[in-house]
Amino acid sequence: MSISRRRLLGTFGAGAGLTLTGGLTAACGSNTGRGSDGEGGRPLLAHWYHQYGEPGTEQAVKRYADAYRKADVQVQWRPGNYDQQTAAALLTASGPDVFEVNGPTLDQIRGRQVVDLTDLLSEAKDDFNPAVLAPKTHEGRIWAVPQVVDMQLLYYRKSMLEKAGVEPPRTLDALVDAAKELTTGDVKGLFLGNDGGPGVLGGTPLHAAGLELITTDGEVGFDDPAAARTLGKLHRLFADKSLLLGAPSDWSDPAAFTQGLTAMQWSGLWALPQVKKALGDDFGVLPFPEDGAHGGPAVPVGAYGAAVSARSGHREAAKEYVKWLWVERTEYQEDFALTYGFHIPARISLARRAAKLRAGAAGEAVGYATDHGHAEPLLWTPASKTAYQDALSRIIKSGASPERELRSVVRRTRAELRRVQKKR
Amino acid sequence: MPRNLPAHHRRGDGLARAGRAVRLVLLSALALLFLLPFYLLVRNGLSSEADITSPEWTFFPGELHWGNIRELFEDPDVPMAHALLNSSLIAVLTTLGTLLLASLAGYGLARIPYRHANLVFYWILGTLMVPAAVTFVPSFVLVSSLGWISTLRGLVVPTLFQAVAAFIFRQYFLGFPRELEDAARVDGLGYWRTYWRVVVPNSRPVFAAVGTIVFIGAWNSFLWPLVIGQDREAWTVQVALSTFTTAQSVNIHELFVAAAVSIVPLLVVFLVLQRYIVAGVERSGIDD
Amino acid sequence: MRGAAPHQKSPTRRSRFGRQNRTLWFWVFVGPFVLGLTLFTYVPLAWSAYLSFFDAHNTVSPTEFVGFDNYTAMLRDDAFTDSLLTFLVFTAFIVPATYVLSLSLALMVNRLRWAQAFFRSVFFLPVACSYVVAALIWKMSIFNGVRFGLANTVLGWFGADQIAWLSTTDPPWYWLVIVTVRLWLQAGFYMVLFLAGLQRIPPRLYEAAAVDGARPGWQVFRHITFPQLRATSVAVVLLLVINAFQAFDEFYNLLSDSRGYPPYARPPLVYLYYTALGQGQNLGLGSAGAVILALIIAVVTVAQARWFGLGRKED
């Protein structure tokens, strides 16, 4: 039966002219790459990536993998909820050898699910952007090699602001007022995602108020009246009905902005080429505006990193491959960051060289990332993050008291910090 | 039946007719409401992106874009044809497997005397109360330790043991005419052959009814394939659809044409078999 | 039909159907099902219960025993108790709404003289649609928050403002979206159950009522139809409550995004899904929540069954 099914699937896949490998049947042969050998006795490594939206990225990473001589690298391109897929796969013996990760999380490190990669970076360590390397570092050891830096920022439509007589907002109060001014019958002032902001904003408003999520000595960084004051202002955006909500695409897609549903939108740097294509010069970019006397503008930065699964059957081979691709082959790193999508290379030397990142809005954005970039600290665990996100949602949308909501987040975060700082 | 009542005819004919008319109008309005989502599915699926997002709502888009269907099947990011095939395989195998296992169990429980039969019955019924998420993580680990992640086995086998199906079969077989079986027995048939030669051929409606319900459930199931079918090649239609909404940017017309394509096979199965479902529900004692 | 001959053979037959053989055959029929059910439901359930007593972050073979800590943490967790409340609210909406709608549909369809099959098919058709597809239609086309959503277009005809249906917590419009999608999907199925029940009511009861002078309509419904549908009603309510407990698909597909899930309209299964399988991977805590949920469901179901006197026939 398994033979006939295999033949059936194979025929169908070919007949439909699709580039499918009939992986369902291949996997039935339980050849998932784990601990198995490829051609000529070389180890077979499974390398997972999350799905990038930009055309050509998948082909590019496959090209890099093919160029590696010491192992057979099988690239797996994974659309869908990637973080959850990897987290689940790491529990079992059927996961990847090498995987891209928007972490790893502290518990993945503490649970020894990923391998220590400190030695791979060696002399190149100082060339990696310290802001994004820090969250990959725990107790002095490095657990993933940063690939590219991503950031988010505020896009605004110049013509709409001019028409409403509004200056590009430099303070949070100005942003709130501008969003209100810009809201008309069909167009909303600001788009912070369909949930009203809590998901994508995260700690950014706190950073703009001069606070931190977790301080460098591992304490809660927002147990401060300023935090409640700043977050409370976000509720005004909602109460004024200045926020676009329930758009068909979310904040990560510039569609709402380019379709003219909103005058300003918070989105990723990756959206910049699309915005430019649709609007030409009729847009500008800003960091999240500052709030309060000790505040400053802020943008979130983060990096996907390459990590090695501790359950890999070929740990050493996998480490060697990661070193080859993400430390040594700078030409691939440059190609990956700049040719397809729009990312900042994680290597300072490469970022400096990139002409594409110097001109116009892109240049401004890179400047924001350098001067005002904040990465999520490793100690900001998913449990704390969920509690904070829930609280922020209630503050923004239900008008809950910021003080009370924050008190319970602080309590939850302290408990998490105690848990993860406890020696095992 | 109420409509055959003499009482009706004794009362004013005009009043009854007015009542019927009101009922018909109400039903027609409700029917339109119930059909509206299907219409939206097709409308959006065959519209251009600009038509869908246009500020002016139109019930009938100016131009039908049949090319959307081809575009869907050519999208390399979402292997729709493959997902359809996976869903079909999974649904067919799940249905056949469930029917076999559950009907045997239901028959055994209903007809073969055994001291602890009640205990076994409650053991089966107990799982009705266990929601999927309760056992979700360990089930996942179990399946993965069997090496079944992203395999057909992993997607099908754990879903074959549906207490509801066994329960319906048991209830049905309790009411199955004993004379037929007794006749088979005196002809020298044991339980096994009685079951296959007499009971099954005389129970087609209940098999069709349970089969259709299981088929729909398997085709539409989402959570399990989402976690077990990790490789893109193991995606079912529902998982493929949901990735449209989590992708970085959403292509609305493609999403809708995919959704429309995904329900076509089911609607066909459904319209053909629906009289069996109704008949099966009536006879199975699902509600006794 | 047959002569006396078979009776003479019956002693030999009896040995074939002896007790031992019967036990064997019972297990031949029931065994495979029970075995699979045990392996794929009870084993994971036991494993879950085991995990719930450990600090199991990112592991399913934990070593740090924590006793009832996960249980106390879960019961003290506002998000979890809120999710139980969400479930209660959802059940309070969906069970009566589905019950009334499906019963009304069945009563109306049942009395049709023509086009009965057509109307039955129309109302039954959504049963074939998946929660994923239905959620898409609801979220993207009917109840999206912008100007090209159907609901907002209709509001526009009356000059009303656009509403962000899924993002508005005051008033909680998202319940409208969630309840209507489930109503649409399942009303037809329960309508068929009621239709079957209606067909079984003996016509003589109605005739007797007419003789007694009961007026067709409400009186007949109240004194004959409704009491006669009792068995069906009990089954429908039980199924509706169990299904409401298991709610996941439409919530997840309507409200989740790449960054997670909002803190409202979050039923228990969704919350546990994020706790145990999300980035947090707190499998111990998630399992504890799951066990609590299973216990609640068991208690509610048994209580309901007792209340309705179900299972009396079984014994």
Write a structural description:
- The complex is a heterotrimer of chains A (424), B (288) and C (315).
- With 424 residues, chain A is α/β, with parallel strands linked by helices.
- Chain A folds into two domains: 33-150 and 301-374, D-Maltodextrin-Binding Protein, domain 2, CATH 3.40.190; 151-297 and 377-421, Periplasmic binding protein-like II (D-Maltodextrin-Binding Protein, domain 2, 3-Layer(aba) Sandwich).
- Chain A is built from 20 helices and twelve strands.
- Chain A has helices at 2-15, 23-28, 57-67, 82-89, 106-110, 118-121, 130-133, 158-164, 172-182, 198-201, 204-208, 225-239, 255-258, 272-279, 315-328, 330-340, 348-353, 360-372, 382-398, 402-421; strands at residues 44-50, 72-78, 98-101, 137-138, 141-142, 145-156, 188-191, 262-268, 284-286, 299-308, 344-345, 373-374.
- In chain A, strands 1, 2, 3, 6, 7, 8, 9, 10, 11 and 12 form a ten-stranded mixed sheet that branches. In chain A, strands 4-5 form a two-stranded antiparallel ribbon.
- In chain A, strand 1, helix 3 and strand 2 (72-78) form a beta-alpha-beta unit.
- In chain A, helix 9 runs parallel beside helix 12 and helix 19 (382-398) packs antiparallel against helix 20.
- The longest helix of chain A has 20 residues, at 402-421.
- The radius of gyration of chain A is 23 Å and the shape is globular.
- Mean pLDDT of chain A is 86; it is low at 1-35.
- Chain B has 288 residues and is an all-alpha fold.
- Chain B has two domains: 2-67, no CATH class; 70-284, MetI-like fold (Orthogonal Bundle).
- Chain B is built from 15 helices and no strands.
- Chain B has helices at 6-10, 13-45, 49-53, 67-74, 80-111, 117-126, 136-145, 152-156, 163-174, 178-186, 191-199, 204-220, 223-228, 237-246, 252-284.
- Chain C is mainly α.
- Chain C has a domain at 91-262: Orthogonal Bundle (MetI-like fold), CATH 1.10.3720.
- Chain C has 14 helices and no strands.
- Chain C is globular.
- The interface between B and C is large, with 104 and 114 residues.
